[in-house]
Amino acid sequence: NAGVTQTPKFQVLKTGQSMTLQCAQDMNHEYMSWYRQDPGMGLRLIHYSVGAGITDQGEVPNGYNVSRSTTEDFPLRLLSAAPSQTSVYFCASRTERGAPYNEQFFGPGTRLTVL
Amino acid sequence: KNEVEQSPQNLTAQEGEFITINCSYSVGISALHWLQQHPGGGIVSLFMLSSGKKKHGRLIATINIQEKHSSLHITASHPRDSAVYICAVVYGGATNKLIFGTGTLLAVQP
Fold it and tell me: Rg of chain B's alpha carbons, rounded to an integer?
């Protein structure tokens, strides 16, 4: 199993540009989520999904969109990038069977810089 | 006040020392995770616990639900243990969201 994969690893954008961060998992996990990690702060939840076709907002959703058309993929879209979105982004997944005692699996992260 | 607080924020130890990292939380939880993040960024799960104690190799995690406190211990520390250790609590409810601490940066010197 590849686990949770993310692309790209690094990205530099100019203010106002849009882009999509890709996330995929091959473990048939129901729950997928996006976090951002900023210096001095814990990971913060952006959006999450409990299954294909179902998404919801997390703690810091503004400026981001998500969709979940398949169990495997959960892309994160930045609509109009802003310097405040400079961060490291992590995708994570877990099974919902046996929740809440489930291990979280994290992708390798995407380091995004917005100039 | 953060809902999940870790201490210390930074820790430098000599190889072989016994290390303790603490996590206190202020919300009702159903479980708690300890995670490890190495330089280069990848995050891996070390433990998930809801009561008592768990051990894996040189790592031991304990939790006291009544006192809202958990500890991560590393015995016989080694430079390869150098990493950021993150505590995350599972905040109950239908979606079982995670609330993360800010992490403890551990450096183990040879």
Answer: 13
Residue B93: per-residue pLDDT: 63
Q: Which chain A positions have a beta carbon within 8 Å of B96's beta carbon?
A: 99-100
The torsion of the CA quartet A35, A38, A40, A45, rounded to 10 degrees, works out to -20
Measured CA distances, A65 to A46, A113, B98 (Å): 9, 18, 20
- Put simply, the answer to whether A109 touches B101 (Cβ < 8 Å) is no
Expressed in percent and rounded to 5, the helix, strand and coil fractions of chain B are 5, 60, 35
pLDDT at B108: 97
B63 and A CB contact within 8 Å: no
Q: Is A38 on the interface with B (CB under 8 A)?
A: no
Chain A positions touching B105 (Cβ under 8 A) are none
Contact list in B for residue A90 (CB cut-off 8 A) is 43
Please tell me which of A17-31, A84-98, B79-93 the model is most confident about, judged by mean pLDDT: A17-31
Distances (CA, A) of A4 to A27, A29, A74, A105, B107: 8, 10, 11, 7, 28
Nearest to A42 among B4, B41, B44 (CB): B4
**Quick check: helix, strand or coil at residue B80?**
helix
> How confident is the model over A47-101, as pLDDT tens digits?
999 999 999 999 999 999 999 999 999 999 999 999 999 999 999 999 887 777 7
pLDDT of the residue at B28 = 82
